[in-house]
Amino acid sequence: MKNTINTTKAPQAIGPYSQAVSINNLLFISGQIPADPETGEIVTGGVGEEAHQVMKNLKAILEEAGATFSNAVKTSIFLKNMDDFALVNEIYASYFEAGNYPARETVQVSKLPKNVNVEISMIAHL
Protein backbone atom coordinates (compact mmCIF):
# COMPACT_ATOMS: atom_id res chain seq x y z
CA MET A 1 0.00 0.00 0.00
CA LYS A 2 1.33 3.42 -0.98
CA ASN A 3 1.36 6.08 1.75
CA THR A 4 2.18 9.76 1.48
CA ILE A 5 4.41 11.12 4.26
CA ASN A 6 4.15 14.79 5.25
CA THR A 7 5.43 16.73 8.23
CA THR A 8 5.40 20.40 9.16
CA LYS A 9 8.91 19.89 10.57
CA ALA A 10 10.31 19.87 7.01
CA PRO A 11 9.65 22.35 4.20
CA GLN A 12 6.43 21.88 2.29
CA ALA A 13 6.73 20.78 -1.32
CA ILE A 14 7.24 23.65 -3.76
CA GLY A 15 5.64 21.75 -6.63
CA PRO A 16 3.36 18.83 -7.46
CA TYR A 17 5.16 16.20 -5.39
CA SER A 18 5.13 14.75 -1.87
CA GLN A 19 7.81 15.13 0.79
CA ALA A 20 8.01 11.34 0.80
CA VAL A 21 6.14 8.23 -0.24
CA SER A 22 6.35 4.80 1.38
CA ILE A 23 5.50 1.52 -0.30
CA ASN A 24 6.45 -2.08 0.52
CA ASN A 25 8.67 -1.07 3.48
CA LEU A 26 10.60 1.45 1.37
CA LEU A 27 10.58 5.20 1.93
CA PHE A 28 11.35 7.50 -1.00
CA ILE A 29 12.18 11.02 0.17
CA SER A 30 12.05 13.81 -2.39
CA GLY A 31 15.09 16.02 -2.83
CA GLN A 32 15.43 18.36 0.13
CA ILE A 33 16.81 21.85 -0.21
CA PRO A 34 17.97 24.07 2.66
CA ALA A 35 14.63 25.72 3.37
CA ASP A 36 13.71 26.48 6.96
CA PRO A 37 10.42 24.65 7.59
CA GLU A 38 9.09 27.42 9.85
CA THR A 39 9.65 30.31 7.44
CA GLY A 40 10.05 28.63 4.06
CA GLU A 41 13.12 30.80 3.53
CA ILE A 42 16.45 29.42 2.32
CA VAL A 43 19.05 29.42 5.09
CA THR A 44 21.99 31.75 4.64
CA GLY A 45 25.62 31.38 5.65
CA GLY A 46 27.03 29.30 2.81
CA VAL A 47 27.03 25.70 1.70
CA GLY A 48 27.89 24.37 5.17
CA GLU A 49 24.77 25.89 6.73
CA GLU A 50 22.76 24.73 3.74
CA ALA A 51 24.01 21.14 4.10
CA HIS A 52 23.08 21.05 7.79
CA GLN A 53 19.55 22.33 7.02
CA VAL A 54 19.10 19.74 4.28
CA MET A 55 20.10 16.97 6.71
CA LYS A 56 17.73 18.35 9.37
CA ASN A 57 14.92 18.31 6.81
CA LEU A 58 15.69 14.71 5.86
CA LYS A 59 15.79 13.76 9.55
CA ALA A 60 12.34 15.28 10.15
CA ILE A 61 10.84 13.30 7.29
CA LEU A 62 12.55 10.09 8.41
CA GLU A 63 11.18 10.59 11.93
CA GLU A 64 7.67 11.23 10.61
CA ALA A 65 7.89 7.85 8.87
CA GLY A 66 9.20 6.16 12.03
CA ALA A 67 12.78 5.87 10.78
CA THR A 68 16.26 7.29 11.41
CA PHE A 69 19.37 7.82 9.34
CA SER A 70 20.32 4.21 10.13
CA ASN A 71 17.42 3.15 7.86
CA ALA A 72 18.86 4.99 4.84
CA VAL A 73 19.94 2.70 2.00
CA LYS A 74 20.60 5.21 -0.83
CA THR A 75 21.13 8.94 -1.18
CA SER A 76 21.75 11.27 -4.08
CA ILE A 77 23.60 14.52 -3.50
CA PHE A 78 23.36 17.33 -6.02
CA LEU A 79 25.90 20.14 -5.74
CA LYS A 80 26.05 23.39 -7.64
CA ASN A 81 29.84 23.34 -7.25
CA MET A 82 31.89 20.16 -6.82
CA ASP A 83 34.49 22.27 -4.98
CA ASP A 84 32.05 22.08 -2.04
CA PHE A 85 32.25 18.26 -1.98
CA ALA A 86 34.66 17.91 0.97
CA LEU A 87 32.66 20.21 3.28
CA VAL A 88 29.27 18.74 2.35
CA ASN A 89 30.69 15.22 2.66
CA GLU A 90 31.99 15.96 6.18
CA ILE A 91 28.64 17.40 7.30
CA TYR A 92 26.68 14.58 5.65
CA ALA A 93 28.83 11.92 7.35
CA SER A 94 28.25 13.48 10.78
CA TYR A 95 24.56 12.51 10.63
CA PHE A 96 25.28 8.79 10.21
CA GLU A 97 26.82 6.20 12.49
CA ALA A 98 30.38 5.55 11.24
CA GLY A 99 30.45 2.50 9.02
CA ASN A 100 26.66 2.50 8.51
CA TYR A 101 26.56 4.72 5.43
CA PRO A 102 24.04 4.27 2.62
CA ALA A 103 24.98 3.83 -1.02
CA ARG A 104 25.36 7.22 -2.68
CA GLU A 105 26.32 9.31 -5.65
CA THR A 106 27.27 12.97 -5.73
CA VAL A 107 26.95 14.99 -8.91
CA GLN A 108 27.50 18.59 -9.90
CA VAL A 109 24.55 20.26 -11.57
CA SER A 110 24.26 23.62 -13.28
CA LYS A 111 21.36 24.88 -11.17
CA LEU A 112 19.13 23.78 -8.29
CA PRO A 113 15.70 24.98 -7.14
CA LYS A 114 15.72 28.43 -5.57
CA ASN A 115 19.39 28.68 -6.62
CA VAL A 116 20.60 26.69 -3.58
CA ASN A 117 24.02 25.04 -3.40
CA VAL A 118 22.96 21.54 -2.30
CA GLU A 119 19.99 19.17 -2.57
CA ILE A 120 19.79 15.61 -1.22
CA SER A 121 17.23 12.87 -1.84
CA MET A 122 17.05 9.57 0.03
CA ILE A 123 15.65 6.05 -0.03
CA ALA A 124 15.24 4.27 3.31
CA HIS A 125 14.03 0.86 4.47
CA LEU A 126 11.22 0.83 7.02
From TrEMBL:
<dbReference type="InterPro" id="IPR006056">
    <property type="entry name" value="RidA"/>
</dbReference>
<dbReference type="Pfam" id="PF01042">
    <property type="entry name" value="Ribonuc_L-PSP"/>
</dbReference>
<dbReference type="GO" id="GO:0005829">
    <property type="term" value="C:cytosol"/>
</dbReference>
<comment type="similarity">
    <text>Belongs to the RutC family.</text>
</comment>
<dbReference type="GO" id="GO:0019239">
    <property type="term" value="F:deaminase activity"/>
</dbReference>
<dbReference type="InterPro" id="IPR035959">
    <property type="entry name" value="RutC-like_sf"/>
</dbReference>
<protein>
    <submittedName>
        <fullName>2-iminobutanoate/2-iminopropanoate deaminase</fullName>
    </submittedName>
</protein>
<dbReference type="InterPro" id="IPR006175">
    <property type="entry name" value="YjgF/YER057c/UK114"/>
</dbReference>
